[in-house]
Amino acid sequence: MKRVGEFFQNIVRNKMMLLMVLPGALWFLFFSYLPMFGTVIAFKEYRFDRDGFWASIVNSKWVGWQNFKFLFSTNDAYIITRNTLLYNIVFIFLGLVLSVLLAVVLSEITNKRLSKVYQTGMFLPYFLSWVIVGYFTFSFLSSDRGLLNGVFNSLGIPPIQWYSESKYWPLILVLVYLWKAVGYNSVVYLASIMGIDKSLYEAAMIDGASKMQQIRAITLPMLRPIITIMTLLAIGKIFYADFGLFYQVPRDSGTLYGVTNVIDTYVYRGLKTTGEIGMSTAAGLYQSVVGFILVITSNFIVRKYDKDNALF
Amino acid sequence: MSQRKKERDFHNLSKPMNITFNLIAGIFAILCVFPFLFVVIISLTDEGTLAKNGYRLIPEKWSLAAYRYMFDMGDTLLRSYGITIFVTVVGTVIALLVMAFYAYAISRKTFRYRNFFAFFSFFTMLFNGGLVPTYIIVTQLMGLKDTVWALILPLAVNAFYIMILRTFYATSVPDAIIESGKIDGAGEFRIFIKLVLPLSLPGLATIGLFSTLGYWNDWFNALLYIDNPNLVPLQSMLMRIETSMQFIMQNAQNSSLSLEAMRSLPQDTSRMAMVVMATLPIIFAYPFFQRYFIQGLTVGAVKE
């Protein structure tokens, strides 16, 4: 009884703070925690019930692991997992190398005003939506009007039906991704390079270190913490693909699904086009669980070696 | 200080290296901007020339017809603009209010349940229910399908932004200021409005910009939740034109009706003109806001 009283006292004492978190907490409840609970659909044969959401969940029949069995018995599960992982690995690796390279280049350019102009240009793609980027790619790849086929035509090379030939798409998607992400990421790294103590470079110069030696011995080691954090974040999300990139840029072209279908597009199509709610939820849950394990593991590994750079 | 700076510059890159570095950065910057310029050029090309030559860097014949056509068709485009502006403004205000309060509360050491609510928010970054349950809850439990709230609410809160804001409060609002407010007899709410808000404006501006950009560029929620053509935001409209265009093209041979439909759809140049119109506000605005985005990124990388 005393404890209950104490509890209420605490509530009253913290009532302003509780009021402040209330809207946000409700949002998390509805948009994050209820959906987590809603993943039980993955173990059910979901039927919409006229009495609303709760009735639909309760009245749908339990089917156990059947949805998962179906999902993993198809070739799709393998293809979407492979695509998601391979693209993300390439994105993380090339993205990191190019962004850091570019950041170092930007930081060393003598004319600081020019460097600012370059940064502003590189930052642009980050601000555009994937719909817009989809139009941009189309202006290059359109089979009858696109710039590339126009150039091919004047060189006497036969035109390519870009949107129906899947062999080019891994390259196209990687290029489009890098185009959109590298400028932005390099500015992040640049911000940390700017934060490096200048006296380190001065000392190196007095010791007669060349610019390349300075980059290798000072800039890169000093960037290690931020590189670790950014890469860790990316590895934690390696099971999540950028829906816009894989949906808008290939213009949802069916012949390309073999190389453009990732877990996120698969789940979306299951929900909106093919209507396989159960299997699609199962795929989503598979993504969430593996994703969760990956964040925890990668964070654990980093903690072990370098406690300051772990996320939590 | 300036003496030292000069010295550093003097010791900086050798000339050939500097030129190489400028070339690398310059070429990449041009590549980043080029597609937009190209789309502007296409939108200014004469439609007949386009049919003959395709998209070219230097068109044979320039024309403003696409923009004239766009203003003639007015309504649809204007309505979409209106929806996007409404969603962006209302959404950003709601997002900022909710997240600013939440982050502030969990940044205060006197708040008894701060750890619980910090974790309540943080955990959503690690695990989520996925698209399908979210969709079912938004449409069947909350009944938001085909309402403007389906475009606003899903993007209103973001655990990562809350973390950035909390770090910002913790580093830029000294406890002493809050204590002094308490001694003067101000309530928690008054302290927040009068003392904390003014100090945390740069942080709020950063998050506000992230939100604004998120709302302006959003097409995914419209793709999921909006069927009513009167509620379609700008980005989503651009997408829908494309889809119906493809659909008609694929069925063009089969019926004479679709030929009629095809004529009523905006042509290549007009569509590119719409892309330009959807991008232009961002192009004008972002160089001024760039600084805040960089600030947000660096703040976000710092743990408490």
From TrEMBL, chain A:
Alphabetized InterPro entries for the sequence: MetI-like, MetI-like_sf, UgpAE/MalFG_permease
Membrane topology category: Multi-pass membrane protein
Main localization of the protein described in the UniProt heading: membrane
CDD domains: TM_PBP2
Coiled-coil segments: none
Domain ABC transmembrane type-1: 81-298
Localization annotation: Cell membrane
Transcription as UniProt keyword: no
Highest taxon listed in the record's lineage: Bacteria
Keywords assigned: Cell membrane, Membrane, Transmembrane, Transmembrane helix, Transport
TM spans (from-to): 21-43, 85-105, 117-138, 168-196, 217-240, 284-302
Family: Belongs to the binding-protein-dependent transport system permease family.
Name recorded for this polypeptide: Sugar ABC transporter permease
The species this protein was found in: Paenibacillus motobuensis
TrEMBL record, chain B:
Membrane topology classification: Multi-pass membrane protein
Major location (coarse): membrane
PROSITE patterns in UniProt: ABC_TM1
Cell compartment(s), UniProt: Cell membrane
Residue span(s) of domain ABC transmembrane type-1: 81-286
Keyword Membrane: yes
Transmembrane spans: 21-44, 81-104, 116-136, 148-170, 191-216, 272-289
One Pfam family matching this protein: BPD_transp_1
Annotated keywords: Cell membrane, Membrane, Transmembrane, Transmembrane helix, Transport
UniProt name for this protein: Carbohydrate ABC transporter permease
Natural source organism: Paenibacillus motobuensis
